[in-house]
Amino acid sequence: MSQQHENTNRSLGETIEEIMNRRMSRRDLIKGAVGVTSAAMLGALGLRATNVTAAPTSALRFTPVTPTAPTFDDVVVPEGYYARTLIRWGEPLSVRAPAHNVWEQTPQAQAEQVGYNCDFVGFLPLPFGSNVSDHGLLFISHEYTNPELMFPNYDFNAPTRNQVDVELAAHGVSVVEIRRAYDGSWSYVRDSQYNRRITGETPIRISGPAAGHEWLKTSEDPTGTVVRGTLNNCSGGKTPWGTVLTAEENFHQYFGNLSKLDSSDPRVAVHKRYGIPAETTELQWEAFHARFDVAQEPNEVFRFGWMVEVDPYDPTFTPVKRTALGRFRHEAATIGIAKKGQVVAYSGDDQQFEYIYKFITKGTYNAKDRKANIGILDEGTLYVAKFNDDGSGVWMPLVYGQGPLTAANGFHSQADVLINTRKAADLLGATKMDRPEDIEPNPVNKKIYIALTNNSARGTEGKPGVDAANPRAKNRTGHVIELTEAGDDYASLTFTWEMLLLCGLPSDESTYFAGYDKSKVSPIACPDNVTFDNAGNLWISTDGAANAIKYNDGFFVVPVSGKERGHVQQFFSSVAGSEVCGPEFTPDNRTVFLAIQHPGEGGTFESPISTWPDRVGLPRPSVLTIQAFDSRVIGS
Ligand code: FEO
Ligand code: CA
Ligand code: CA
Predict the structure, then answer these.
(1) N or C: which end of the chain has fewer CB within 10 A?
(2) pLDDT band at 59 (very low <50, low <70, confident <90, very high)
(3) Are 464 and 10 in contact, with CB atoms under 8 Å apart?
(4) The pLDDT value given to residue 52
(5) What percent of the chain clears pLDDT 70, i.e. is strictly above it?
(6) How far apart are CA 522 and CA 346, in angstroms?
(7) Is 278 helix (H, G, I), strand (E, B) or coil?
């Protein structure tokens, strides 16, 4: 038994099964003991589920791959499938853009080439509104840079201006047109009119309630409505009107020298709540750009940490930061349309003990006029989640003037609430989660799946202890919660929730796979990005398995209905030092795109631990495609 396990359930004197059973009986009391409705609950009681759902059958028939050791530097797919690299860091996105040359990198060249560390991948069919699976736009976000892998002889103590500016240009987003040929092979269109880079320097509009706020004004932008760039674009979500929401996640790390700001300044407490570094940052961009120095430009950091809307179908579109969705370390934002037509966006704040949010628009979705929806995310209500131990939950409004969100607590407007979303959520007593990553509605069963990647600080000294929604102390392997909105309506303000997976090695007693036979599941740790196939199966990519369970990260599928519910099967294993992102299916489910982020992290340019995918020189973050040799639906 591991130290970790001794410190988890044993400290409660209960096994996970006992906790689930105990919670079951509480729920039965609440529901009058008549409503045993989910396979997870049956599973927790060791019962077989039948007729649980009318969803299409999962029909998964591939042989799961064997996990690989963290030093193993190749991708693995099931028998009958093949993986190909579609596009890599540095590939030119126009005819005039130069081929990538690691020895002669410039910000100008990088701004016309694919950025670094691909995370979110969205496939948008061409033309808009079609359902084609062989032609479309690929929207790729570039979360961060690894200068030690990008540049020869990089010195963390003395980065150069050129290196810093190349890194700024390697952040952001790439939009690229792609096609599948008759032989099945995918390639990108170098001279496409749609190809576009958005970088850490691209002008971006700020809209919604916080636009123009005093704290969003800087010496460069006295209006508080236009900002240079988007940073740390992690995951995201596609909207039904064909735009993409890209998330600014760990934006705090680019802004240094908070300790030089006068401690009586009211902005200091807000910056501290968001983790702005007290001294020099690791990347030291502030040495060359005053806007990253909080002592010189105390407000620039307020202009980051938002959801950014981009229209990939319009290369001239100015991206927009939608402040109504709140400011925090957004992992993503994913969309469901409520029964009455409101647009609902789910979003997590990815840090230990942070919260889960959703935003409900005031207006309703217009399916007939896509452009009419651009702006709908500027008006509405932001909510934060409270998970009760009895399996119920409530969405609490973050509205200025309601409850504690008043001048007595430093809030003078809705803009104040949005700029300091974290404090507002603190005051409402929201549930502190184990690092919320992707949160996404399953279009087949309308339930929402929440990846909580890990939280090694849970239950440690001075930190919050376990609760039913975060039931393991020193949670290194993460879990997945299944949330059901009341009436299956995304606009509902109450919900119920179930534990779907407590990840880890199946031999670890603290794991739980919706009651499925543990001897038949693949080991999985640190769930990060999720998507669904057309049958409603949940697909999960991971980030951090190498640390947590000593295997490379991968891509997994788990049915969420029927007797296969909880049967986690590994479909893909990644390369040394990488995490797996995307993931994204074509509409026909016959291709899946995966982003292989930071391959070879842990090595350096001079001493690489990975050479994927080129097998010469340095590793390159890349998007790959996986298809079957006989073109069957992935996993079938
Ligand atoms: Fe960028 Fe939360 O992963
Ligand atoms: Ca992520
Ligand atoms: Ca991640």
Answers:
(1) N
(2) confident
(3) no
(4) 37
(5) 91
(6) 28
(7) coil
Confidence of residue 31 (pLDDT cuts 50, 70, 90): very low
- Distances from the Cα of 421 to the Cα of 153, 354, 418, 424, 471, angstroms: 41, 11, 5, 5, 25
pLDDT of residue 4: 34
With a 6 Å cutoff on the Cβ, whether 350 touches ligand 1 is yes
On the question of pLDDT at 6 being above 60, the answer is no
Ligand 3 center–CA 363 separation, angstroms: 32
**pLDDT tens, residue by residue, 392-435:** 999 999 999 999 999 999 999 999 999 999 999 999 999 999 99
Query: In angstroms, how far is CA 375 from the centroid of its own chain?
Result: 23
Q: Indicate which ligand has the atom closest to the C-alpha of 248.
A: 1
Domains and CATH numbers, the chain: 16-249+305-628 (2.120.10.30)
Residue 336: in which H helix or E strand, if any? strand 334-337
From the CA of 528, how far away is ligand 3's center (Å)?
6
Centroid of ligand 2 to alpha carbon of 529 (angstroms): 6
Ligand 1 atom with the smallest distance to the CA of 250 is: 1
Residue 190 — φ and ψ, nearest 5°?
A: -65, -35
Token pair belonging to 9: 């359930």
Ligand 1 site, residue 434, Cβ cutoff 6 A: no
What is the average per-residue pLDDT within 255-263? 97
Instruction: Give percent helix, percent strand, percent coil of the chain, each to the nearest 5.
Output: 20, 30, 50
Which two three-digit tokens encode residue 250?
A: 């760990």
**pLDDT-derived band of residue 338, with 50, 70 and 90 as boundaries?**
very high
Closest residue by CA, ligand 1 atom 1:
234
* Ligand 1 centre distance from Cα of residue 355 (Å): 14
Q: State the Cα–Cα distance between residues 241 and 260, nearest whole angstrom.
A: 45
Cβ of 437 closer than 6 Å to ligand 1, yes or no, is yes
| Residues 60-88 as b or e (16 or more Cβ within 10 Å = b) | bebebbebbebebbebbbbeebebebbbb
Ligand 1 lined by 331 (C-beta under 6 Å): yes
pLDDT tens digit sequence for 507-558? 999 999 999 999 999 999 999 999 999 999 999 999 999 999 999 999 999 9
> Which residues lie below 8 Å from residue 269, measured CB to CB, with a gap of 6+?
none
Is the distance from the beta carbon of residue 354 to the nearest atom of ligand 1 less than 6 Å? Answer: no
The token pair that represents 54 in the structure block:
């009318």
pTM for this model (two decimals): 0.92
Whether the CB-CB separation of 355 and 433 falls below 8 Å is answered with yes
Kindly report, residue by residue over 357-372, the tens digit of the pLDDT. 999 999 999 999 999 9
In angstroms, what is the span from residue 437 Cα to ligand 1's centroid? 6
Whether the predicted pLDDT of 51 surpasses 90: no
